[in-house]
Amino acid sequence: MNHHEIKNFLAVAETLHFGRASELCHLSPSALTRSIQRLESELGQALFLRDNRQVQLTLAGEKFYQYAQKAVRDWEDICEDLGEDGEVEGVVSLYASVTAVYSILPDLLEAYRALYPKVRLNLRTGAAEESIDKLLAGDIDMAVAALPDRQSDRIDFLPLLTTHLVFVGPRAGGREYAFSDMHELGRLPFVLARSGVSRSRVDQFLRGVGAHAVRITEVSGNEGILAMVRLGCGVGVVPELVLERSPFRDDLVVLDGAPQLEPYVVGLCTTRKNLARASVAAMWQLAQERAQ
Amino acid sequence: MNHHEIKNFLAVAETLHFGRASELCHLSPSALTRSIQRLESELGQALFLRDNRQVQLTLAGEKFYQYAQKAVRDWEDICEDLGEDGEVEGVVSLYASVTAVYSILPDLLEAYRALYPKVRLNLRTGAAEESIDKLLAGDIDMAVAALPDRQSDRIDFLPLLTTHLVFVGPRAGGREYAFSDMHELGRLPFVLARSGVSRSRVDQFLRGVGAHAVRITEVSGNEGILAMVRLGCGVGVVPELVLERSPFRDDLVVLDGAPQLEPYVVGLCTTRKNLARASVAAMWQLAQERAQ
DNA sequence: GCGCCTTACGAGTCCCGTAATAATA
DNA sequence: TATTATTACGGGACTCGTAAGGCGC
């Protein structure tokens, strides 16, 4: 028996609808069905009467509902009790781009540090597009990253802000990089991330207009892209936020007539497993409160 | 978080000794260590202070101890509440030899049926030596079987009674099957189980005296062995209990001077997974009470 | 050196998601 | 036919046991 099963039971008991409840539990309908079946098997009694059109609590289900509510409340109480006064300890390693460290993280980390001074924060900077791999490999506990196009089951994502991907050129050479003729795009020199969301957005866009870029300089990390663009290596694509925060921003310009790409959502990432850790869950909740 | 972790915590908190506690939990020391570590990670605080010579509760550990006791009590209360008045339902399939059905099971099944009338009992008879395979395959939920020589991690065994393996011959031809010369044993015709504990005991014994039986009739099921022995196919080896209960017992004799094999322990078997089911756990507990 | 808790690693089980099935209106 | 709960099945994560490590007596 585990607390997930109890939580799942409560979700079904309160919605009386497996499909709806499965969403609340972040679970597929079949998984929820089996979770309830396990519980019923362990207790030796049916908790719900369900035909395909209706779900309702049995007598045993009513009794168990009383228990389940109290059990969850008690658990939350002890967690709160143990977690108060910044008693939570441990180590949390957080991976983010330099820009994120400058722009998004200061407030969050300050608040976290104030509430949980005993947690040792381990901050690592690097290219945003590598964060998911590092998470999955267990190298880090959390990351600030772009919302992946293909959501993995193992990764939880918490949106923090939305920005745009902008096409950037050097201020001096602004004229030679023009978007007057979409079909000529393939001949422009590009400075792009080696991989990641921003890169796939650009690739997707270019395919959409039938262009095939041949002159691409690949860089790891958005900040590096701007440095290369400033040197005249080509047109870069970065999140607007990165451009605003760049020390090179006065030497760069957003290109006139450039196309609008899909919004770029930046948020906090972690694995499901890590979310069970108090130190990680605390950061998550804090970010959630500040994001809404 | 699951209830096993809480139970494990209680065991450590009450013994203040990981090794001792790991036995109580039926767990290896390393598994228990990790179980406590998971809990601590989830709560964000150390629950025990341990160097290699001493284990003691932290402040958080003391608080959590109060919670854990109550949580386990509450869980047991709800289980008892739901289980009373024979409310437990479900299906339990039980596999046993015919002899077991006649000798061991009547009392147990009667008591079970009286306490849990809603559980549908599914009784299947067959050769004892096949029970473990059927358990592992999931064909059945429980079995009456001999204590396996090599205990599997998946199987739980509850001893019910101990009997002896006896060498049996036909009453009429008792004289031709004699144990006067141990070294001549290999020339005796045997009627043995195809596999299983009784078979391996005999094989082991024969190897021990340097004999190699060449004339073996293999049978599945102890009751069948006696039938073959009665027909004069050779010397059989069966649990004494089976002989006593056999309708052929007047036509058979225990051989004089036959060697004593190791005791043969008969008990109830099931898988760990099945023990989580209320209907199975109830049978287990009932058997436990009657066995002590 | 021995005892005891902990980490490393390989293996097996359990659980989830996808897809197919049943059943109802 | 559309909707909803349930089974079948394959893949992957999690936890276990064995064995090696580390620290204190």
UniProtKB/TrEMBL annotation, chains A, B:
<keyword id="KW-0804">Transcription</keyword>
<dbReference type="InterPro" id="IPR000847">
    <property type="entry name" value="LysR_HTH_N"/>
</dbReference>
<keyword id="KW-0805">Transcription regulation</keyword>
<comment type="similarity">
    <text>Belongs to the LysR transcriptional regulatory family.</text>
</comment>
<dbReference type="Pfam" id="PF00126">
    <property type="entry name" value="HTH_1"/>
</dbReference>
<dbReference type="InterPro" id="IPR005119">
    <property type="entry name" value="LysR_subst-bd"/>
</dbReference>
<keyword id="KW-0238">DNA-binding</keyword>
<dbReference type="InterPro" id="IPR036388">
    <property type="entry name" value="WH-like_DNA-bd_sf"/>
</dbReference>
<protein>
    <submittedName>
        <fullName>HTH-type transcriptional activator IlvY</fullName>
    </submittedName>
</protein>
<feature type="domain" description="HTH lysR-type">
    <location>
        <begin position="1"/>
        <end position="58"/>
    </location>
</feature>
<dbReference type="Pfam" id="PF03466">
    <property type="entry name" value="LysR_substrate"/>
</dbReference>
<dbReference type="InterPro" id="IPR036390">
    <property type="entry name" value="WH_DNA-bd_sf"/>
</dbReference>
